[in-house]
Amino acid sequence: MKNEGPGAFYKGIGPAWLREASYTSLRLGLYEPVKQLVGANEAGAGFLRKFIAGALAGAIGSCAGNPFDVLKTKMMANKDSDEGLGYYFSEIKKAEGFMGFYKGFNTNVIRAMVLNATKMACYDCQELPHCLIRSRRTSPPIRRCLHRRILLDLYCLSIR
User: Which domain holds residue 114?
Assistant: First the structure.
């Protein structure tokens, strides 16, 4: 704060938004089509097929989001410059070519595959919480569903 001011908190926010828009929309939006591709949408499809579908959707999303990760990192790491997205884009392209936008690609894709596979497969195998099903007679408090969701998240973490 002393050296860079309050604007330093927002360095790289543009690429971060672009990364989130591309990566998240693809990983979520492609899950259903990929499920059909691998047969995970069939009745009785097991956890493994859903896991594979989630991993593939996460990998594709990560491919689209990686260039924005690289731009965000470059912008945040350079303390001496307040240049914008276009400047860093041209610098990376000039210095390293197209592949410069895919630095750290392997690690990023592996992370995205594991993250998306566990999240999507676990959530897909979980029954819809009762509080999300509207009933005129009874409607359990949202707290019960929150507790179920926390337990489901902990379960997903434990089965890595």
Answer: 6-125
The pLDDT of 82-98, averaged and rounded, is: 88
- The verdict on 74 and 53 lying in the same domain is yes
Q: Token pair of 72, please?
A: 């965000």
Tell me the per-residue pLDDT of 32-87, one tens digit each, with 9 for 90 and over: 899 999 988 888 888 889 999 999 999 999 999 999 999 888 888 887 777 888 89
Instruction: Give the pair of three-digit tokens for residue 137.
Output: 């007679």
Closest CA to 70 of 97, 96, 102: 102
Tokens representing residue 88 in the block: 């860093």
